[in-house]
Amino acid sequence: MQHKDFETILQEAEKLLACFESDLTEDGMFGCSFLIITDKRIVVSDANFSIKTSVNLSDIASVKMEDYVGNAELKVVLKDCSTVSLIRFSRSLRQKFGDAARIIENLTLLRRVEVEQLSEEVGEEKPRFKTGPILYILKFITPYKFLLTVGILTGIFSIFLGLLPPYFMKMLIDDVIIGRKEGLLPQVIVAIILTQAVSSLLGVARSYCLSYVSLKAMYNIRVKMFNHIMSFQPSILDTYEAGRLISRITDDVSRVNWFLSWGLEQFLRSMVSLASVSVMIFILEPRLSLIALIPIPILGLGVFLFNRKSRWVYHYEWRRWADVSALLVDVIPGFPTVKSHVMEKAEEEKLKLKLSDVILAGLRSTKLNLQFFPMLGFVMSAGTAIIW
């Protein structure tokens, strides 16, 4: 079907995102019907493109798929708790309409996702969370706020310790070597050794505290997600593959480990360093500080634009890894069945296709990084040159 075939269905300024063709009509007879997904609503039409059902995305609370003998049905549950039947299809199309169910879910407020664009393969999604994901994650580390505070404070204290070695080297050159004050040599050496020793001990304490908090937080998140999945009916597997659910608990939660054990602490350390250096520059040379602030608006704009684009880029990449996990969990436990039906090549082709999607998603994130980080680095270097 061509895009022009659905022009009579689309409303003004409405964008067609995906279309799925069924082999059954609404009364369960063999025939043709279409599930049309736009950026505003879900539309079901017959072979003549007459609208049979139309549901606004903003009204959808959840999506479910029900299996019958020889066929299946895709339904949506609205926010008023009513259920709307969208389309029926034979079981041979179950996987295709499983993809349709996931697209609808991604477009609804259930996942707090706003679509920026969808490719022919299925999509590029841009998540928008009503509640900040960072604030949600921080709820799981509040029971360990003492260790988290210790880890952050040791990291901040390490910043100030890092400022001492250059000062000691200045004393070593100016006072000991040039000034020929040999009596200061043992004191400077001992001070350098003690500074490095204390810095190393603080680094050990920081790493252990933050790793402990991160691992405990991941434990709590995984348990909560597991209990949440167990609260559903078994029919959830009609909408989500088992591998996709496993990926949510394992791979997605593992990404929190990086944020808690490194990202959060580095962010706070960077903020403290920026504030400290800014104050020192303002105190020492106010006019120079004004020149140093020239790149700040450009950096702020770059970070803002990167943050907007990176959300859906990385979200799309993570979901492609979830597709791979879903395939492996389905195929490997059913290995005898695959062998008995001589389906090794077919499953291999499926895996290659999904891994190719992973590569494309990875390249997309790489291109995004290359679009911004070299430019931001150049701006910072140019700012340094202006100061000189």
Can you give a write-up of this model?
By secondary structure, the chain is α+β, with helices and mostly antiparallel strands. It folds into 3 domains: 3-111, Roll (PH-domain like); 129-282, ABC transporter type 1, transmembrane domain (ABC transporter transmembrane region fold, Up-down Bundle), CATH 1.20.1560; 285-388, no CATH class. It has helices spanning 94-107, 133-138, 145-162, 164-178, 184-230, 236-239, 242-284, 286-292, 296-331, 335-340, 344-387, and strands at residues 16-24, 30-38, 41-46, 51-56, 60-67, 71-78, 83-90, 113-117, 124-127. The strands form 3 sheets. Strands 1-2-3-4 form a 4-stranded antiparallel sheet, with helices on one face. Strands 5-6-7 form a 3-stranded antiparallel sheet. A two-stranded antiparallel sheet has the order 8-9. A hairpin with a 4-residue loop joins strand 3 (41-46) and strand 4. The radius of gyration is 29 Å and the shape is elongated. The N and C termini lie far apart (63 Å).
Q: In short, what is this structure?
A:
The protein is built from eleven helices and nine strands.
Counting copies of identical and different chains, the oligomeric state is single chain
Order of helices and strands: EEEEEEEHEEHHHHHHHHHH
CATH superfamily of the largest domain: ABC transporter type 1, transmembrane domain
Q: The CATH topology of the largest domain, please?
A: ABC transporter transmembrane region fold
The tally of structural domains comes to: 3
- In percent, how much strand structure appears in the residues? 15-25%
